[in-house]
Amino acid sequence: MRAKSTNEENVKSVISSQNRIFSEELKRRIIQDLDTKVITISQIVAQYEVSRASVYKWRYLYSKQFQKQTKMVVQMESEATKTLKLNQRVAELERVIGQKQLEIDYLNKLIELAGKDFGVDLKKNLEPKP
């Protein structure tokens, strides 16, 4: 039993150590699938039994998005949308605060006028006693 498993291990190591050559067309198709997020790097490594380094080399060679020495700046649309929504919310809250302040000013004036009409300081009488 042990000799048989050793033979199988040797065969596997010979197969895995063989240099395989992938066509340029296949590499381009794999990288195109990777760029369109149909497949991940881990899946490519497992499916085609290649190293991650090889996949990254292919990616730099054949991908339009990941050329060496280029920087890709990504601005997420959601960030701009989120900022716009937050600014709109701030404006809405400022408007509500303004309305509430007008209401407070109105009520304070009403209390003041009522106090003059009745001859009683209503603000003193409305304060809670400790």
Question: How much of the polypeptide forms β-strand, as a percent range?
Answer: under 5%
Q: Helix count, per DSSP?
A: 6
Rg over CA atoms: 37 Å
Characterize the biggest β-sheet: none
The residue ranges in which pLDDT falls below 50 over 5 or more consecutive positions are: 10-15
- The assigned structural class equals mainly alpha
Query: How would you state the average pLDDT, rounded?
Result: 81
Pattern of helices and strands: HHHHHH
Coarse morphology? rod-shaped
Proportion of residues in helical segments: over 70%
Distance between the termini: 92 Å
Number of strands: 0
Task: Label this structure with key terms.
mainly alpha, 130 residues, single chain
Précis, in short:
By secondary structure, this protein is mainly α. The protein has helices spanning 2-17, 24-35, 41-48, 52-62, 77-118, 122-126.
